[in-house]
TrEMBL record:
Matches recorded under PROSITE patterns: PROKAR_LIPOPROTEIN
Protein name: Lipoprotein
Domain of life from the UniProt record: Bacteria
Protein's organism: Kibdelosporangium aridum
Amino acid sequence: MRNKFALAVVGVTGASVLMACSSSESKFADELKAAGFGTVQPTTETEKKTKKVGTKTVKSSTKVLEAVVRVKGCDLEFEKVSGQSGYWLDELHVNGQEPEWPGYPENLRRQQVEAMLADSSQKPAGFASCYRP
């Protein structure tokens, strides 16, 4: 009887963790859609860190939400730390590469991204091969 109960608790806990991840992803996708972006492909990545404090090792992890959107022929990756407000433009996905976006602009709406792609500001390597005005 105890084994069945423990198994049920583990199953419910696992399901709630999966729902929390998908809930965060869908909220981030909704946030980007509200900013004017169309099709959003969200994913989650966990960054784990360890730090030595005296004789003990302290482990921590941060959940980073990522979403790829297509604007003017370019696949742009936005990121957000789960549980915090705001997001930033992180990378350009082009020719199998993922160069970092200079300056990591924050909380951009679609119109602002289109204007930034068209202006003379610094762009990552490979930008010219994907951009279609």
